[in-house]
Design a protein that fits this description.
Elements lengths: L2 E8 L3 H14 L4 E8 L6 H8 L4 E4 L5 H11 L5 E5 L3 E4 L2 H11 L6 E6 L5 E2 L3 E2 L4 H8 L2 H4 L20 E2 L2 E2 L3 E5 H6 L12 H11 L5 E10 L8 H19 L5 H25 L4 H12 L1 H5 L4
Parallel strand pairs: 1-2, 1-4, 2-3, 6-12
Antiparallel strand pairs: 4-11, 5-12, 6-7, 6-11, 8-10, 9-12
Pfam family, one: Glycos_transf_2
Protein name: Glycosyltransferase family 2 protein
InterPro entries: Glyco_trans_2-like, Nucleotide-diphossugar_trans
């Protein structure tokens, strides 16, 4: 029986974290699991709830917010299992998804990174389980709004593999870190997640480095989870600034110097278009003013997120 270290990083998500842990134990019957919760100095009652509800779960209190990558690396060092599974606290395991994902990994060992399908709370498809590597086309079509307008197209929405219905296996560039399985041997050869990515794009960086070593991440439709997404962020601007900073950092790390200003310019164009369009809508629909204000905050802080993580 394969053994898996499940690393769950907690940050002010007590209710979600408890539900995620419950679903892991309820739905995992065939895999030897070691659940490690890393709490990044939550200020809610996360630590107390976890200790009270799951006294046997290994809980590591970092005492500081290390970000996702930093928290995961702390958890991974505390385990020794054959596989490492990254699991977000805002997830719910469905129908033995961990067992199915581990079986899939054993059947496709060369892939190096394995993921499943993510669903919304109403069990409708959430297509953010995997995506393509950042490139000129994905950034351009996103900036122009074409990826959203033609979201079912794999040409215009290549970023999210728009024409893929998630009912078949597929090789992908990046598997989302909310449900992300990898062997410890590869993890250690890549030195885990790059902690310079405080939050967002760290899994993209890992997958690209795995591809460079001859692995090809792969998704199975049989392993399904619910993923709410972004529950530790209270506003759009906070989440988007971190997301854009992560993308900028990825571009700085992985793209040649001549491409970097082009790619970052397209990120800026995307935000500018969102800012202008939301402002115009707010002139007509007053209840949309809050959304316009959020995009204005994001645009005003462009110098910060365009620089990536320092």
């Amino acid at each position: 029986m394969s053994k898996v270290d499940i690393i769950l990083v907690s940050y002010n998500t007590a209710e979600y974290t408890v539900r995620a842990i419950e679903s892991v134990f309820e739905q995992t019957k065939q895999t030897d699991i070691n659940l490690i919760v890393v709490d990044n100095a939550s200020t809610d009652n996360s630590v107390e709830r976890i200790k009270q509800t799951f006294p046997d779960v290994k809980l590591i209190e970092t005492g500081a917010n290390l970000g996702f990558a930093g928290g995961v690396n702390v958890g991974a060092k505390a385990g020794d299992a054959e596989y490492i599974l990254l699991l977000n606290p805002d997830t719910v395991i469905l129908e033995g998804a961990i067992d199915k994902l581990v079986l899939f990994a054993e059947q496709h060992p060369q892939s190096g990174v394995w993921g499943g399908v993510t669903l919304n709370n109403d069990l409708s498809l959430n297509p953010n389980n995997a995506r393509a590597r950042i490139d000129f086309r994905t950034l351009l079509f996103s900036a122009l709004g074409l990826s959203k307008l033609f979201n079912k197209s794999c040409f215009f929405n290549h970023d999210n593999y728009g024409c893929w219905d998630r009912k078949s296996e597929r090789d992908v560039d990046v598997i989302t870190g909310c449900f992300f399985l990898t062997p410890r041997t590869l993890w250690e050869s890549l030195n885990g997640l790059d902690e310079t990515f405080f939050m967002y794009a760290e899994e993209a960086d890992y997958c690209i480095r795995a591809i460079e070593k001859g692995h090809q991440p792969r998704v199975t439709p049989t392993a399904r989870i619910i993923h709410h997404g972004g529950v530790s962020e209270v506003d759009l601007s906070g989440k988007m600034i971190k997301l854009l900073k992560g993308k900028s950092h990825f571009i700085k790390k992985h793209e040649p110097s001549w491409k970097q200003p082009i790619f970052k310019g397209l990120l800026l164009l995307h935000v500018f278009n969102k800012y202008i369009s939301s402002s115009l809508v707010a002139l007509i629909e007053k209840d949309k003013q809050a959304l316009s204000n959020e995009w204005r905050k994001i645009f005003k802080q462009r110098q910060s997120w365009l620089a990536g993580y320092q």
